[in-house]
Each structure stands twice: as structure tokens, then as C-alpha cells.
Amino acid sequence: MIPLFVDCSDRRIVIFGGGNVAARKAAYFSGKSHLTVVSRSFVSAFDSLQATRVEIDLEKTSDLKLLDLIRDAFLVIGALSDPEINNRIGRLCRAKGILFNNADGESGDVVLPAVTGGDHYTIAISTDGASPAVSRFIREQIEDEFPALDAMIALQERLRGVLKEKEPDQAKRNAVLRNVLNDHAIWEQLFSDRGAAWKDVERRYLHG
What we know:
Layout: E1 12-16, H1 20-29, E2 34-39, E3 52-55, H2 63-70, E4 75-78, H3 83-96, E5 99-102, E6 114-117, E7 122-125, H4 132-145, H5 149-166, H6 170-181, H7 184-192, H8 194-206
Parallel strand pairs: 1-2, 1-4, 2-3, 4-5
Antiparallel strand pairs: 6-7
């Protein structure tokens, strides 16, 4: 598998399952796609999600009905507690060339990563399904270690713009950007006061 970032805003995503696992996966796509969730019942976590619900007993659902439910889907997710039904849905998806993620059962074509991000970045971590706990651990470590990461990216973007006007030498511009990135004092200031951090960058890196 290879990592990709995909715009799902105009894509149809179908999730089979109404439990906590399905809700976590639905939250991944809620508000970012045309999301449909299919299950006999739904946990309360779905109440806050933007999704079309289809209430149906999947144990008694024919292949013809399942094919109708996944029609025009970009991605289908099997998040039911019964791996046999997940596998059955997966086989129908493969026959129709639809991407499939399986929470419990035979491997599909897609793995949903652990994700962290901000206004200016997204980081996705995956162990290819081998250990979701490790993926979560890495995500939590990044969040704990770099709480001002979003602010640093915004500062670097602003600094690049100023440097392009002030410094014609690209190597020197890159050196300033790298030095600011490695400046622990700037990181600490960004966490509490972005304005003060920028003034410090101006004083120490732009007025030399």
C-alpha cells in the first residue's frame, strides 16, 4: 500500500455498522463527504455526525440490496461486529471495483490511518492494520511534543514571504528558515504568544 491524501468532499462514502467502531470511522468522514451509514441500530455517537442513516437488518439483506446500497460509492467500510458480513460486503465491492476498508475480517484495499493536524498541516500514521494502538501512540506523541506545530508552519509561511523580498540568495533564505525552525525559544513563544514570537524573529533574524 502507498499513502495518499484524497479529496472526499464530492465522494460517496458508505459505512456498514452502527456501533462505536463504525462511529469512529464515520467521524473521520463526517462533514467531509457524502456519508451514508447502514445498520439495524446506531449508538448515540452518531447523533452529532453529518450522515444519512439507513436502518436495515444486514443479516437478512440480499446481495441485490447490498449492491443497491453501495451503488456509486467511492469507498465502502465494513465495520460490523460480524466479520462474515463484512467479508461479504467486501467481495461485492471488489466485484464492482469499489474501494473497501474492513474493520474486522479479510483485508480490504484501504487502511484508515490515525490522523492529527491543524489549520496548516495533516499527519497520517498507519501500521497497515498491524497495531492501531501504535498508530494512536505516535499520533499522541506528535501532539504532545509539538503543540505549536500549526503556529510554526504559519510563521514559516510568513517568514518565507518576507525573505523573498529582502534576501535574493536562496541558500541564505533557507538557512534562516532552518535556524528559526530549530530555535527552541521561538517554539516556546509560539505556544503562548504568536505575536511576540514573530517580533522576536524580526529582531533576531531579519534585522541583522
